[in-house]
């Protein structure tokens, strides 16, 4: 295979994977580190984060922080204020990407974007996960109801005013789901705390 054919082959591999690959995935597909660096130096791919590359031809990322964290840490689930922001149920602007990981897992850490990691029990971690396609990447994010329950659990860290504002915005929507809210409140062990606020919003 000529150099030109190899370059076309590797570009096609990127395209088949949504235009983005972790270095480990690229190497497993037969792209050497040298070829990756060569493609980068020629301006064909760009380094999104350490060990994560994407084709330059792709449109700009709509949410690069969530995509970068999800590519680097596939087990991390976007939670708390980052999830509120994704679901448009807060006026807060996240200063870091909040993620949940299983209690026994290694805590994710990045220089950029900054990451705030939280260890969840197995049931709390596994409940309410949705997979959203962002810029061609599958990103795990807790659904709005699970996110609100998590926010009540971490109310001392994020502020009760933020939690109540999110509940108010969520309540104003047509798809208000009290049953789901109570289900996740029970899983997160905040049912007694949440119930008075939920009853006040009925």
From TrEMBL:
<dbReference type="InterPro" id="IPR025159">
    <property type="entry name" value="AbiEi_N"/>
</dbReference>
<dbReference type="Pfam" id="PF13338">
    <property type="entry name" value="AbiEi_4"/>
</dbReference>
<protein>
    <submittedName>
        <fullName>Transcriptional regulator</fullName>
    </submittedName>
</protein>
<feature type="domain" description="AbiEi antitoxin N-terminal">
    <location>
        <begin position="12"/>
        <end position="56"/>
    </location>
</feature>
């Amino acid at each position: 295979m000529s150099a030109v054919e190899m370059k076309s082959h590797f570009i096609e591999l990127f395209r088949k994977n949504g235009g983005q690959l972790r270095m480990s995935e690229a190497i497993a597909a037969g792209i050497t580190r040298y070829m990756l660096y060569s493609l980068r130096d020629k301006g064909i791919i760009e380094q999104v984060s350490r060990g994560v590359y994407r084709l330059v031809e792709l449109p700009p990322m709509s949410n690069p922080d969530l995509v970068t964290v999800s590519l680097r840490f596939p087990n991390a689930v976007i939670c708390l204020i980052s999830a509120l922001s994704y679901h448009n149920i807060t006026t807060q602007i996240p200063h870091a990407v909040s993620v949940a990981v299983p209690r026994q897992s290694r805590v994710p850490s990045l220089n950029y974007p900054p990451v705030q990691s939280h260890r969840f029990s197995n049931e709390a971690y596994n409940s309410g996960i949705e997979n959203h396609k962002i810029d061609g990447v599958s990103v795990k994010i807790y659904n709005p109801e699970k996110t609100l329950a998590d926010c009540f659990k971490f109310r001392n860290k994020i502020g009760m005013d933020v939690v109540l504002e999110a509940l108010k915005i969520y309540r104003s929507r047509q798809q208000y789901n009290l049953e789901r809210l109570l289900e996740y409140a029970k899983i997160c062990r905040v049912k007694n705390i949440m119930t008075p606020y939920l009853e006040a919003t009925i």
